[in-house]
Design goal:
single chain, alpha/beta, 4-stranded mixed β-sheet, 14 helices, binds ligand EPZ
């Protein structure tokens, strides 16, 4: 297994190009199942999860062609040959469940392995299933699989989510695009990735109102056509490198990043003493003075994202004063805390909240991570720490951060990957 070795203490200086958002690309690829015509996606990041989704689409019979020399353009198209999403692929990536809505809407049936729990929580898919049932699907769970079927087309329905779910909103939005009649999704997720999916669906001929709000009204159409769509820049990659610049006391230009997608992250970082300046097609992030402890609580967008919680906690580990960081989305997303404490951080977890008491400096150590964002938080800690840090289980990072060591090394970090 690969490892990343970092010698900390160097301020980052330079430019980092922000890639397309992984969490927009995955549902957009699933949307390729909604039409037999060609869907061309641009600004696709090169990540392990994208390869997994391509593998799943290929299993359904969809040809996935990398059209640009750098692999950033994907062309999807073809007839659906199989409506089964097998366990072997779904277990690698929970977002595989996003094929359920499109398959059911397009083919009237789907057999999708139930995703299991994962390191950050149990993560059930009941909202996805309940919504599809309201649209007329018959759903049965058997042998670890979701068996879904509908006679004729799915029917439009009024679906009120009891709480906000990104994946359920996406699955039902895609299903509703091809349903008979109007679907209204109330208390829908408003993440920029949902807006991106909706924009692409509209380009494919879908009729959607309320994009960007928590109430989406979809007037189903009988068929969707091909389209070209460029994926939004990754707001979590942006926030992660903003934390990297700030924690090292450096200055980094995040090329292509959009401040309006950062939501509460920009506000919280600025309050903590990080400067974020908008430039034409870039954000300049720097820190000239000390960091202050500022509380943060994770919430659905535009609140503070759970996917930035671990990285922000590292920043708070070296801030002056204390910060309370509260996780409200996933029940087990503090696994980075014991590792950060091994590096000299002073963090105490009390239920869903962590009190982070700032220390003057972290110290390097060998560490191990259990999920994507926890892994990158350890990389950030390594960049700021005195001495050497070795981050093990790098495969987590490769699921969601493209060329992380090259991007950081280009800004002066002493970082390298070792094949293990
Ligand atoms: C998406 O996961 C992201 N993944 C996650 O990114 C992100 O952390 C999460 O949204 C929250 O922002 C992708 O977009 C591919 P949810 P998703 O449904 O859709 C519960 C990363 O690091 N829930 O909004 O699975 C669920 O357990 C990751 O890139 C139900 O109870 O998240 C959680 O507590 C990891 N029943 C909460 O809702 C359901 O049917 C929010 O989950 C669905 C969800």
């Amino acid at each position: 297994m690969d490892r990343i070795r970092i010698r900390g203490g160097r301020p980052l200086e330079g430019d980092i190009v922000i890639g397309g958002a992984k969490n927009a690309a995955l549902p957009l690829m699933a949307a390729g199942l909604l039409t037999e015509e060609r869907l061309e996606l641009g600004n696709v990041p090169q990540l392990a999860d994208i390869h997994t989704m391509a593998e799943l689409l290929a299993q359904h019979g969809i040809a996935v062609e990398r059209a640009a020399p750098d692999g950033r353009v994907l062309r999807l198209g073809g007839a659906i040959g199989s409506t089964e999403a097998p366990y072997d692929i779904v277990r690698k990536m929970r977002a595989s469940v996003l094929v359920l809505g499109p398959l059911l809407a397009r083919c009237g049936e789907a057999r999708v392995s139930l995703p299991g729990g994962c390191a950050i929580g149990t993560r059930p898919v009941d909202l996805h299933l309940r919504g599809l049932e309201q649209m007329g699907a018959e759903i049965r769970l058997d042998g670890g699989y979701i068996h879904a079927a509908v006679r004729g087309r799915l029917r439009g329905a009024a679906i009120v989510f009891p709480f906000v779910s990104v994946g359920a909103t996406e699955n039902l939005l895609m299903a509703a695009a091809l349903a008979d009649g109007q679907t209204v999704l109330v208390n829908a997720a408003r993440e920029p990735e949902i807006g991106d999916l909706a924009a692409c669906l509209v380009a494919m001929g879908a009729r959607i109102e309320g994009i960007g709000t928590d109430r989406l009204a979809i007037e189903g159409v009988a068929r969707l056509h091909g389209a070209r769509h460029a994926i939004v820049p990754d707001r979590i990659e942006t926030g992660t490198y903003a934390c990297a610049a700030a924690i090292t006391g450096g200055q980094v230009r995040l090329m292509g990043a959009r401040v309006e997608h950062l939501g509460a992250v920009a506000r919280t970082l600025r309050e903590a003493g990080v400067e974020i300046e908008e430039q034409p097609d870039a954000l300049l992030v720097r820190r000239r003075n000390g960091l202050r402890g500022v509380d943060a609580m994770t919430e659905p967008y535009p609140g503070f994202p759970t996917d930035m919680q671990a990285q922000y906690m590292v920043l708070m580990s070296v801030a002056e004063g204390a910060a309370m960081v509260t996780e409200t989305i996933f029940e087990n997303r503090f696994m980075h805390v014991p590792e950060l404490n091994r590096m000299g951080a002073r963090i105490n977890v009390h239920g869903a909240s962590a009190i982070v008491r700032g220390v003057p400096a972290l110290s390097g150590a060998p560490v191990m991570a259990t999920d994507l964002r926890a892994s990158v938080s350890l990389v950030l800690a390594g960049l700021a720490a005195r001495g050497e840090t070795v981050v093990n289980r790098v495969y987590h990072l490769d699921r969601g951060y493209e060329a992380v060591e090259q991007k950081l090394a280009a800004c002066g970090a002493e970082i390298e990957r070792e094949a293990g």
